[in-house]
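General statements about sequence and structure are easier to judge against a single worked case. In the encoding step, the backbone of a single protein was reduced to a row of integers, each denoting a local shape. The record that follows shows the chain in one-letter code together with its fold in token form.
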Amino acid sequence: IPGGYSREAFVFDHAGDPVKYNNIYFTNSNQELMFRSYNCTFNKVMIANFYWSYNGSGNKYDTLLLYRAVEYRNICLNSDTVGLFESRSDCYINKNNKITTARFFGNTTIYGSNIFDTVYFNPGNRYILESGSTQFVNKDLQMRGNGCFPITLQSSRSGIQATISKLSGIMTADYVQLQDQNATGGASFYAGQFSA
């Protein structure tokens, strides 16, 4: 792996010509990881038990897994393409990403317009979508809270809507607290009887 190790941080640094990497695992450290990469292809990247920062864009990940990875410099993805993205930590998604399957198990902020095939928002978490931006869902949005752990879906600025767009089909949800959300695109959207 390019980069090095210091007493303060692990560093993954690739800012040169595009490269393809197979499996990269950063686990069980509870230290800082600085991850910088531009226009590279990754088979699988797993980051677990790290305080990490991401600087880069244009990367392609078959699988990107974040487990107890505390991201402290605000960007998790930025103009990247991901097959499976799973975050079991709080997460911040920047703009212009294409994600086949996204599973968010922590509080998540999504900025800019992004394209998802399938998105999972999970009970007990707060999801913030950028006001004035559109999240495009091609296949399915799973958004079912429960009586003990509802889902909160809100825009980034009170009074200014964020948009979720799906061209066709039916999208259902329940136990969701909605604020300043707009649904467009031709699909039928049902918030559920226990949503507000």
